[in-house]
Description:
The protein has helices spanning 20-32, 50-59, 76-92, 108-123; strands spanning 4-10, 37-42, 64-69, 97-100. The chain is an alpha/beta fold. The protein has a single domain (4-123), classed as 3-Layer(aba) Sandwich (Rossmann fold), CATH 3.40.50. The chain is globular.
Amino acid sequence: MNTRALILFGHGARDARWAAPFKRLQQIVQQQLPDVTVTLAFLELMPPQLPELVEQLEEGGHTEATIVPVFFGQGGHVLRDLPLIIEKLRQDHAEMTIKVAGAVGEDADVLNAVATYCVASLARQ
């Protein structure tokens, strides 16, 4: 049984189509990490929200969760809202180890991949 989980955390939107690239990302990551449960959670507007998902994971026997904010930058949600949510999660799920990565858009490899895409877009015109 997988006891570790990787949670891809996004903002959420009213339009369900917004989540399509997040679901594709989840599938790609899950293929690379077959021994880890890879899930999606959202801040608002879409289920599941992070507290609900962490509770489900704990009930399912997971002992460790790493949350990856799939945000391009460290805006108010990542700097203000997420730390409050994480603090509450750690209080409510003291038996779980809960880690938080930086926002994906702050990573040099991610920025380089986006830059490569942007440069290549010139050739597609």
